[in-house]
């Protein structure tokens, strides 16, 4: 049985057994001398003939004994395209591995009495966000993801992850991009599939000409794309609207938001609902005067569901997203403030008065905001994580501050990748706080 992808640059061979998967999804084999070999596209329990290539990296020349969790990858681009690293692993086993990653991160943070986690996985062909590289290749356009460990792009001709609405539009996008005078050599294409349709942000290495704008307008009309925005590589500031045929809208928990281009939303509609429900299930019983403070609110994925249960003070650092949230919040118990929490965190005194603090920080974690959170010691904290390493760091701070772990929900919304989402709730038993009204200072 030959592993995927094959390479033929042997300078060393080893017969090894894979003991675990590393954080990047590579199988790890620990040798007798303590050395660890990281071998892509292998699984725990497999016996592998490993080959060291001329570059010094190890690959699986042959799978001698296959894991029962090994399966046939569903995509012909697997091993070339860098978008997925674990398509050779059964999906049920993949969910178990991701759940174990989250629980290991919490254990590493100091929590020993771990609750039984709930775990969910989204279906294939459901991802509604795509960040694609654009490259000129002679007369053709390559539109896709980077090859693994490379800056080279792989043309995305098929994908079992992306929503069909995105894939169906790629041929027309390639055709238009091929003709753009403002695309010299390279660019990027960021696509959000919203309720109103595709929302596209195009980044190019040259300025758009008048003819380019006409071509984008024609693409928008022909493909029923509500909005195409554009920005030149390296330029700061907001993108400009190159073509728009109708309003851009997205519904969150029954409220309609008009988001800015490139706005962050959860990767799939299914995971959005699962995360919202997990947060609501973790919400403690609140009295009429209790206030929920939400940090890193975005366009309101969690804000609107939370506002059905309590008064919410939502903080978001990106002004266009905060404005979109504020414009949609009329008639709700939702108050919105724009504030860069990495530079100007909400202070401990204010956090201490909250009935619950809900935060969905960036990939790197909550940073300075976590210090104020652990000083304020609000009784309840619900933390939404997309990075087990950042979860370990931030949860360790909560553990040191006297919190206990109440519940864990794991959502595999990044199918066949190593990424995993988790919703964790924490409670501080000894916290004493004022239950008087609270108003934000931002």
TrEMBL record:
<dbReference type="GO" id="GO:0051539">
    <property type="term" value="F:4 iron, 4 sulfur cluster binding"/>
</dbReference>
<feature type="binding site">
    <location>
        <position position="296"/>
    </location>
    <ligand>
        <name>S-adenosyl-L-methionine</name>
    </ligand>
</feature>
<keyword id="KW-0479">Metal-binding</keyword>
<dbReference type="InterPro" id="IPR012340">
    <property type="entry name" value="NA-bd_OB-fold"/>
</dbReference>
<feature type="active site" description="Nucleophile">
    <location>
        <position position="386"/>
    </location>
</feature>
<keyword id="KW-0411">Iron-sulfur</keyword>
<keyword id="KW-0808">Transferase</keyword>
<dbReference type="Pfam" id="PF05958">
    <property type="entry name" value="tRNA_U5-meth_tr"/>
</dbReference>
<feature type="binding site">
    <location>
        <position position="266"/>
    </location>
    <ligand>
        <name>S-adenosyl-L-methionine</name>
    </ligand>
</feature>
<keyword id="KW-0489">Methyltransferase</keyword>
<dbReference type="GO" id="GO:0070475">
    <property type="term" value="P:rRNA base methylation"/>
</dbReference>
<keyword id="KW-0408">Iron</keyword>
<keyword id="KW-0004">4Fe-4S</keyword>
<feature type="binding site">
    <location>
        <position position="360"/>
    </location>
    <ligand>
        <name>S-adenosyl-L-methionine</name>
    </ligand>
</feature>
<protein>
    <submittedName>
        <fullName>RNA methyltransferase</fullName>
    </submittedName>
</protein>
<dbReference type="InterPro" id="IPR029063">
    <property type="entry name" value="SAM-dependent_MTases_sf"/>
</dbReference>
<dbReference type="GO" id="GO:0070041">
    <property type="term" value="F:rRNA (uridine-C5-)-methyltransferase activity"/>
</dbReference>
<dbReference type="InterPro" id="IPR010280">
    <property type="entry name" value="U5_MeTrfase_fam"/>
</dbReference>
<keyword id="KW-0949">S-adenosyl-L-methionine</keyword>
<comment type="similarity">
    <text>Belongs to the class I-like SAM-binding methyltransferase superfamily. RNA M5U methyltransferase family.</text>
</comment>
<feature type="binding site">
    <location>
        <position position="316"/>
    </location>
    <ligand>
        <name>S-adenosyl-L-methionine</name>
    </ligand>
</feature>
